[in-house]
Fold Nucleoside-diphosphate kinase.
Amino acid sequence: MDSQEQKEAQPFTDIFDEDEAERSFLLSKPTCLIVFGKPGSGKKTLARKLAQRWNCIFIEASEVIQMNIQQGTEYGLKCQELLCKGESIPEEVVTEMILQKIESPEVAHFGYVLTGFPFLSEKCMTVPQQIEKITNLKLKPDILINIKEFLAHHDCRYLIEVDGSQEADHVFEVGKMYVLSSEEALKKFVLNPRPYLLPPMPTCPCKVFVFGPPFSGRTTICNLIAHNYKA
């Protein structure tokens, strides 16, 4: 009988009482999203746009590190000290900063859009352990977005995959490459490569894009390539 009276008192799904609606909104869980994807798939760009559109807090490793350094937190001072020594920031420290940000009051109010976590390298935790961290969050994600097979749409002739766990100097020694301007030039090169290999050789501008997960050595490789080819 009581439940029937309650249904009659609240016959609509939406709350039309202003005070009750405001109270319900303030007590409700904020929207939380996680964007997954391979390196270079555009997950960071998408996550940032979603955060702006949904008025959520954008959470990503490099952003969290920069924020802690600017605010002079304990983690920020530790990161600054390591970077000044030329050392990389351990993943366990980055993980702690990300989890601390997720538990902050502003995220509890606005919600979050998280990307770049779990880490791929598994240096401090395996991917299943990192996923367990996510599932144990107080603010669990409502939506998971997985950007799939971005690299599959690239022409394999222009895509070089290297092992980011190797030293930068070793990764740089990928071997000799010939960049040709067209299919016609490729056919001529295959038939007789000598005109292309003997001086004077053309030095047309070439655009190279180096991408990879955070702290994988992208900047170091870019500097080595630019220095070698005077770009």
